[in-house]
Amino acid sequence: MPFLKERVWYTRIGEGDPLVLIGGSSLVHNQWDFILSELTDSFQVVLYDQRGAGLSERNPTSISFDTWIDDLKEILDELKIKRTHLFGTSNGSLIVLGFALKYPDRVGALIHYGMYKLPEQAIKMANVGYKILDEFGATKMGCYFLVKLFGIKQEFENWETSIFLKNISADSWKAMHEVMKNIDLENQLDKIKAPQLILIGDSGPLSKESDYGSGWKKIVQKCKNVEIAVIPNSSGTYCVIEKPKEVALEVKKFLNKYKIL
Known about the structure:
Elements: E1 3-4, E2 8-13, E3 17-22, H1 36-39, E4 43-48, H2 65-78, E5 84-88, H3 91-102, E6 107-112, H4 120-136, H5 140-150, H6 157-167, H7 170-181, E7 196-203, H8 215-222, E8 226-235, H9 239-242, H10 244-255
Parallel strand pairs: 3-4, 3-5, 5-6, 6-7, 7-8
Antiparallel strand pairs: 1-2, 2-4
Helix pairs in contact: 2-3, 4-5, 4-7, 5-6
């Protein structure tokens, strides 16, 4: 199981054009459990856990936006991948956009949720998350309440609770969200030249019509070459879990237009 400098976990699966999958701050690589097999038949998929969660180190003092981005660059360097597509959900969207801004020559096409900064709803949800973790810790009950806060469909709640339980620590979860609160890429969006697909569900508290999921509107306004794919009957950023086949079809259709190899 490879690690970058013994701190950041990553792996590579499949063959084809490289595609890095960047999950959210609590699910990290498990964000892709339901869709992974739908993508590895067409792509060389790279998974990694950003510092603060999952199999990577959870030292709160090592977590920063620049570190998240530069860790990804170092992983690509170690794997000798010169250029890659990126697909991120939740705060993975921030990393996708930040990486494209800092290393534009290393990216092909971008797929993300449209989050270029934390909107007010996301900040309020993070603050409620702090209170949950202060009261219950990263225990089964604490993780269950976090899951309820973010609103995945009921049939996936037990699965997500079990993933949160293994992937998060209270202090590092809070540190990750403090970093996110200070990210605002709005004034740099027009510098992104890579083609983008914004992929989002239409229901739940994280849907495209919520404040949490509203970032796509600004990206469409400020960026060129942007496509939108709405996945019906799925909960916002959780569309990759709830509707994996539908999402995979959209991803393949989009990326087939922007071959790297």
